[in-house]
Amino acid sequence: MSYRTPHHIREYLKGACLTVNHEYCLRCTGRGDDYRKKVLTGTNEIDLCARLGTFFRANYRLAAQGRGDADLITDSPPFKTEVKYILPGRTNWNQVRDDWNGLRALSNNGQAFRKRALVWFWPSITLYKFTSCLSVTRDLNDKFSEAVLAPFWPYTNVVMPQFGKNQRIEFAEPRHQGPHGIQLPNGRRFRLDIVGNVTHPLWAVVFTRLTPEEYCEIDPADCRSLGSTAFNISEWV
Predict the structure, then answer these.
(1) Per residue, what are the HEC states of the chain?
(2) What's the rounded Cα separation, in Å, for the pair 236 and 4?
(3) What is the sign of the dihedral through the CA atoms of 179, 28, 199 and 98?
(4) Band of residue 229 on the pLDDT scale cut at 50, 70, 90
C-alpha cells in the first residue's frame, strides 16, 4: 500500500539526480577528457534509471528502453518518470520529443502533475557540442519555433553560423539552476530544474508540469512564454 507524502516528485528526483551527478563528479575528478568520455560512453540509459531507482530503495521498477511503460516507476509514493540519456549516438530527436510531448499532454486528474516527471541527462558541455548530442529538427524552414526550443531554455543559445542561413543550438551556462518556468501558447506550464553544473561530467534537467498558481510562484524573471513563431536570434540566458 502506498504511503502519502506532502512532497512533490521533483523533490525526490532532484535528490536522486544529485546522487548520480555526485558519483560521476567523484569518478572523474582529476581525470582527463578521454577518461571522462570513456566513463560516459560506458554508461547506458538503463544504468541511469537504475541509479535513480536506488534512491527509492526496494520500491522501484524499471520499464526502460521500449518496455511499454514509464522508464522508472515507484509504487510508494506512486511516481512515474521518463528518462533520457542524451549522448552522441544514444538517442534521437523523435524519441526526446515524444517524451516531452507526453509530459505536455498530461492532465492533472488525480493530481498527476505531482506524480509524473521527465529527466534528461546530459554530458558536460566542455566535452560535447549540443549538435553532437542531439539533432533537433527546424520546424520553420531554416529556423526553430519557440515551442520546439522550449525544453532547452535556459541552458542553450540559438546562434546563426558565420557562413550559412540555418539557426543552430549551442550549449550555454544558465544563470542559476532553477526553478525556471515555461509557458506554451495553449496554457500548459512547466518547471525546469537543473541538477549539477553543466560543466560537470554528467548533469540533469528535471521537468514537471505546473498549475497556474504554481507557475505564478516562480520569479517572473525566470519564466518564459514561448509561442509557435520563429525564434529571433538573441541571448537566452
Answers:
(1) CCCCCCCCHHHHHHHHHHHHHHHHHHHHCCCCHHHHHHHHHCCCHHHHHHHHHHCCHHHEEECCCCCCCCCEEEECCEEEEEEEECCCCCCCHHHHHHHHHHHHCCCCCCCHHHCEEEEEEEECCCCCCHHHHCCCCCCECCECEHHHHHHHCCCEEEECCCCCCCCEEEECCCCCCCCEEEECCCCCEEEEEEECCCCCCEEEEEEEEECHHHHHCCCHHHEEECCCCECCCCCCC
(2) 39
(3) negative
(4) confident
Of 66-70, 94-98, 230-234, give the lowest mean pLDDT range. Answer: 230-234
Closest CA to 93 of 139, 52, 48, 127: 139
Confidence at 3, pLDDT banded by 50, 70, 90: confident
Sign of CA dihedral 31, 37, 39, 45: positive
Out of 93-102, 138-147, 187-196, least confident range: 138-147
Q: What is the pLDDT of residue 167?
A: 92
Q: What cell was used for 34? A: 578521454
Which residue bears the cell 542553450?
Answer: 156
